[in-house]
Amino acid sequence: DIISTVEFNYTGDLLATGDKGGRVVIFQREQETKSRPLSRGEYNVYSTFQSHEPEFDYLKSLEIEEKINKIRWLPQQNAAHFLLSTNDKTIKLWKISERDKRAEGYNLKDEDGRLREPFRVTELRVPTLKPMDLMVEASPRRTFANAHTYHINSISVNSDYATYLSADDLRINLWHLEVTNRSFNIVDIKPANMEELTEVITAAEFHPHHCNVFVYSSSKGTIRLCDMRSSALCDQHSKFFEEPEDPSSRSFFSEIISSISDVKFSHSGRYMMTRDYLSVKVWDLNMENRPVETYQVHEYLRSKLCSLYENDCIFDKFECCWNGSDSTIMTGSYNNFFRTFERETHRDITLEASRESSKPRAILKPRKVCTTGKRKKDEITVDSLDFNKKILHTAWHPMENIIAVAATNNLYLFQEKVN
Amino acid sequence: QDTQEKDKAIPPERAEEAKLKAKYPNLGQKPGGSDFLMKRLQKGQKYFDSGDYNMAKAKMKNKQLPCAGPDKNLVTGDHIPTPQDLPQRKSSLVTSKLAG
């Protein structure tokens, strides 16, 4: 099924994917062993479960898709792993735990579970724990429902490890992980008169260290930073980030392509990155009037906006991510291409995630899109790009140079070559 | 002659906008405004009612997935069509020339 979200956990040992069918698949990194040196860093399936089912909203006669929009891991606090997964309307907390022991020698029941005849129980025995084949179980621990009228686009776990936010097109709610029957609304941009609606919330995230700070991006290309200490309802922003637009270059497409599809804080907490249709921008939280860095992802599409509008591709929502040290950023494009940008050296590279272009363990060859008339060998022209092959979801291991790239219904894992 | 050409050069975005306006002259006055936001807020396939939805789901389970081909999509006279029988078509903002 089509992968709709990809997320590493805090150590990078687990990688979760969610798909359009409401399923979550978790991969675990194999431990290095001397006997199998080649399998270092390989990820294998650890657990699979059905997180969400399709539902029907009776009041509006609308189908609620089971597609998993986002998965966010909780930091590990005991032997079990916890993650939040959400579809358009409902967030669920899942517990993934391992079972490798089984109790044997019960007094009241047989090994196959049948109750023993009371007169057969002649002596008392203490059950013993015996090893068994590893079993990974996923169980839903909390269901956070009925808090969103519109479609949930983001969830973000707070650095206090006790609360998290969920954002839909017009509202952001704050939850406590232990409480499912109540959530606090912290942002509400719904106008009194819906005719006056000019923008929607497209993404939201908590600051990685300051538990009172979060940001949300809009369809108009702006980002608002809010401080929950200033008021209970954060409709008034503390900071407003917007790049001034050149009025002479404004067109019908300007607002659509400026819509931010993803916002991510850097690990350091000093910067944030936004993705709009054609570029990725890095903002310094201390400077609101313009980004500090701008990277063109696929500028050659600017002269194709008309057809991209007609086939709806102009509304595609690409995500972006930082590497562990914040030195490199990555985002996807079309034709199964994805791009990484090194911030210090300004080096960028285009790579392809496809079976035809790479064999396992082979080094990826850089790709290039030809933008001028003369096409060199190995280059691809803009017109021959496959716009159905879009890389919307990518993730970077929190510490190592391992990246996960979702290409429609395939997941690719790439690793930096170690000499 | 070079500078003359540069002055006349139209930014690619504007050229694309002109193309779009030429194809769809009635396109909304408010660029990227309420229309496409409203469409975004209402995303999701609408059914007439829950009975319609449940019947369509039941039919989907019994039927094979429809394959591409014009003759398979011709559902006439056999039974009342459900949303699943109709060819998938995303609603677009651009209204057809037939409407108004």
TrEMBL record, chain A:
GO cellular component: protein phosphatase type 2A complex
SUPFAM superfamilies, per database record: WD40 repeat-like
Keywords for the protein's UniProt record, in alphabetical order: Repeat, WD repeat
Gene3D superfamilies: YVTN repeat-like/Quinoprotein amine dehydrogenase (2.130.10.10)
PROSITE patterns (UniProt xref): PR55_1, PR55_2
Source organism superkingdom: Eukaryota
MF term (GO), any: protein phosphatase regulator activity
Keyword Zinc: no
Protein's UniProt keywords contain Repeat: yes
Family the entry assigns: Belongs to the phosphatase 2A regulatory subunit B family.
Protein name: Serine/threonine-protein phosphatase 2A 55 kDa regulatory subunit B
Organism: Sterrhoptilus dennistouni
Gene: Ppp2r2d
UniProtKB/TrEMBL annotation, chain B:
Record keywords: Cell cycle, Cell division, Cytoplasm, Mitosis, Phosphoprotein, Protein phosphatase inhibitor
Origin superkingdom: Eukaryota
Pfam families from the UniProt entry: Endosulfine
UniProt xrefs under InterPro entries: Endosulphine (IPR006760)
Polar residues bias: start-end ranges: 89-100
Main location per the UniProt record: cytoplasm
Compartment annotation: Cytoplasm
GO biological process: cell division
A GO CC term attached to the entry: cytoplasm
Ranges for region Disordered: 65-100
GO MF term set: protein phosphatase inhibitor activity
Function: Protein phosphatase inhibitor that specifically inhibits protein phosphatase 2A (PP2A) during mitosis.
Family per record: Belongs to the endosulfine family.
PANTHER family in alphabetical order: ALPHA-ENDOSULFINE (PTHR10358:SF21), ENDOSULFINE (PTHR10358)
Name under which the protein is recorded: Alpha-endosulfine
Source organism (scientific name): Sterrhoptilus dennistouni
